[in-house]
Amino acid sequence: MPLTPPKGELYDPDMAALWVGDGPVHDFPEIGVASILYIDVRKGMVILHEGQLCLCVDRELRTPGNLPSKLTIKIKNLKTGLVNEVRVHPENKVEQAY
Fold first, then answer.
1. In terms of Cα–Cα distance, which of 92, 73, 93 is closest to 83?
2. Each residue's pLDDT tens digit, 73-94
3. Do 47 and 84 touch, CB atoms closer than 8 A?
4. Secondary structure class of 6 (helix, strand, coil)
5. Are 79 and 51 in contact (CB under 8 A)?
6. Distance, CA of 51 to CA of 92 (rounded, Å)
7. Are 6 and 18 in contact (CB under 8 A)?
8. Residue 44, by phi and psi: left (phi above 0), alpha (psi -120 to 50) or beta?
9. CA 40 to CA 45: how far, in whole Å?
């Protein structure tokens, strides 16, 4: 069976539309989530940390004199319910889920 659309339908190679029978079956490209800086993470945000959805429970930015700043965030894993404190560089990026 050829991979061509029926009459009146357009084939969009960017969307990788596959045609089966009389209708399209779309294999859409993976949609990425928004990447933000850790400094922009606030309480109540859900982020993707190490492949797991985590809720930001608390955050504290420490900027000592002539040393680099560190951001300590307390995150709750939404799958397991465990709460961890993570120290990160504020300039690093993280994926925001919600």
1. 73
2. 999 999 999 999 999 999 999 9
3. no
4. coil
5. no
6. 16
7. no
8. left
9. 10
